[in-house]
Amino acid sequence: MAYKKGLFKTSVGRKNLMAVTGLFIAFFLIIHLVGNLILIIPDSWFPIEFWGGVESAHDMYNAYSHFLVHFWPITLVAWILYISIITHVIDALLITLNNNKAKGDKYQVTDNSTSTWYSRNMGVLGTVIGLFIFIHMAQFWLKYKVLGTEHDLYELVVTTFKQWWVVLIYEIGIIALGFHLAHGVESAHRSLGAYPKGLMRVIKYIALCFSIVMAVLYAIIPIIIYFK
Amino acid sequence: MNLTLKIWRQEGPEAKGKMVTYKVSDISKDMSFLEMLDVLNEDLATKGERTVEFDHDCREGICGQCSLVINGQAHGHESHYTTCQTHMRSYKDGDVIFIEPFRAKSFPVIRDLKVDRSSMDKIIQAGGYISSFTGMAPEANSIPIHHEVAESAFDSAACIGCGACVATCKNSSAALFLSAKISHLAKLPQGKVERMERVVWMVNAHDDEGFGSCTNTGACAMVCPQEVDLLDITRMNYEYNRALATVRS
Fold it and tell me: Do the Cβ atoms of B218 and A114 come closer than 8 Å?
């Protein structure tokens, strides 16, 4: 039917796309975190019988990263992830441009007590995260996966996080991510239409817990490596 | 009490507006906000100056005509009141009060504090109705409706279309207004006939009128005089996706 305008063209459709890509990225964050928690496993835990008697975090992390690069389903998921991130950014720009067009003249006085600062500044937080992803990928993904100049990823990560300013950049990026998730995960479910009241209440709670857990666990990795 | 008012004055839709300062004195705390403006206007009329124009009608919180952004908040800082139901007891002697019109591209200023909200009528015209036979009122109990469903539909139907949601939204989205009508009709059996088409038509009309996308900040529901639930927007998104996923010839 002609009245259906497609995803990129309506205010609700654009938000759907934002939600689907955002939730996929959020799901990826869980997997990414689990893998990288290997970096902070205490030495005293090794050897770990469950993982075939692996001797050290060094071996375990490198085996894990080798697996990621050489297992084709992961490559497929990685491509879906790249597409999701790019779509999320383009869609965000489209929505923001359209919303700016909809705005009237500025108010002389504004009272922002009716909403949280992070829900109003998703674009700013997203830009910080975008810059952070750029640096993050240039440091590891580019050197290890694309150029192949580094073969010992564990060594690369540990030496990188021994620089205080790198840790600082990571903490800023992760704090932005935490706030972005705090609004984004709940908002995505709203955009997709999870309307029953009880369901939304549960989602709201889970989304908040999720963003706090993600932010805290991601934040401690560079700090622990720095002080190790 | 004596107050300083900083009011947006604008000659016409194309004119450039500015904030003008006025002093009002001997304001009773029992007056409504609009009565306080009446006092100012009487004062201006006596002096032979042009009075401040603002929208108002019933002055009892049900018509949705009054607007005004008072000190940065639509309908003033008291949650879930219309401007006409805001009283001067909420203010102190010597307060400086900023009064501005509802601002959005889709709400062009007509004069001073009056804005054209007909863009909201266009949204309703696009699908905010049901088709039914005219004639005698049907027997009230011919369609059984669960009490909770009826109450929930009534909560959505309570929207008075004032536009405070748009004025408050950082994206000038009318999602709360739009979704209140969609939810109201989607919840009731009478609304089921056009359920699919209605949501698509109305969302399209909303976009065509130049309103922005909802980003779920929830600010609209915080100022809504009728306490329309933010969940109505979520419900609307569900209805929209359901309609898109359903193939109709």
Answer: yes
Say how many domains are in chain A: 1
Structural domain includes residue A152: yes
> Across the interface, do B204 and A109 touch by the CB < 8 Å criterion?
no
With contact defined as beta carbons under 8 Å apart, do B32 and B124 qualify? no
What domain range includes position A88? Answer: 11-99+118-227
CA distance B176 to A12: 13
Nearest by CB to residue B210, choosing from A12, A16, A102, is A102
Residue among A5, A120, A193 whose CB faces B204 most closely: A5
Measure in Å the smallest separation between the Cα of B228 and chain A Cα atoms.
14
Cβ separation B238–A194 shorter than 8 A: yes
Domains of chain B: residue spans and CATH = 3-111 (3.10.20.30), 118-245 (1.10.1060.10)
CB contact, 8 Å: B211 with chain A?
yes
pTM summary value? 0.92
Return d(Cα A150, Cα A194) in angstroms, integer.
45
The reply to whether residue B213 touches residue A98, judged by beta carbons under 8 angstroms, is: yes
CA distance linking residue B161 with residue B184, whole number of Å = 13
Task: Tell me the two tokens of residue B112.
Answer: 């001073």
- In tens digits, what is the pLDDT along chain A, a chain of 228 residues? 446 666 668 899 999 999 999 999 999 999 999 999 999 998 888 888 888 888 899 999 999 999 988 899 999 999 999 999 999 999 999 999 999 999 989 999 999 999 999 999 999 999 999 999 999 999 999 888 888 888 899 999 999 999 999 999 999 999 999 999 999 999 999 999 998 989 999 999 999 999 999 999 999 999 999 998
Supply the ipTM of this predicted assembly. 0.90
In a domain? residue A185: yes
What CATH number should be reported for the domain holding residue A163?
1.20.1300.10
